[in-house]
Amino acid sequence: MRRSIITGNWKMNSTVAETVNLINGLLKAGAADSKGEVVVCPPFTSLESAGKLLKDSSIGLGSQDMSEYKSGAYTAEISAEMLLTLGVTHTILGHSERRQYHFETDDRVNRAAKVALEAGLTPIICVGETLDQRDSGDTEKTVGSQIEGTLAGFTADLLLRTVVAYEPVWAIGTGKTATPEMAEDVHRFIREKIAAIDKEAADQVPILYGGSVKPSNAGELLSQPNIDGALVGGASLKVDDFIGIINAL
Ligand code: 13P
Question: pLDDT at residue 35 above 90?
Answer without folding.
Answer: no
